[in-house]
Design brief:
Blueprint lengths: L6 H4 L6 H12 L5 H10 L16 H10 L4
Helix pairs in contact: 2-3
C-alpha cells in the first residue's frame, strides 16, 4: 500500500481510514476498526494532510501580477 491506491483495483483515488479498513480485510483477512487504523497510522508517523481550499473564482495570473506591483512588506 505504500504506492497509493489504484483506482481500478481499489476503487478509490486517495486512502481514507474506511478504505484502508476494507483493503486490510481483503488483503490480510484481519478485521479492524477505523479508529484502530488511525492509531496505527499515527504511531507510524503519518499525519492527515488536507490541501488548502481555493476560491472557485481565483485567478492565478492576477494574483502573480498583484504580488509584482504591490509594495514589499
Amino acid at each position: 500500500m505504500s504506492e497509493g491506491p489504484d483506482l481500478a483495483q481499489d476503487g478509490v483515488t486517495r486512502w481514507r481510514r474506511s478504505d484502508l479498513v476494507r483493503a486490510i480485510a481483503r488483503r490480510f483477512g484481519v478485521a479492524m476498526a477505523e479508529r484502530g487504523v488511525g492509531d496505527l497510522l499515527r504511531r507510524q508517523g503519518f499525519r492527515r494532510l488536507v490541501p488548502r481550499p481555493r476560491h472557485p473564482g481565483h485567478d492565478a495570473g492576477r494574483q502573480a501580477s498583484f504580488r509584482l506591483t504591490s509594495p514589499p512588506s
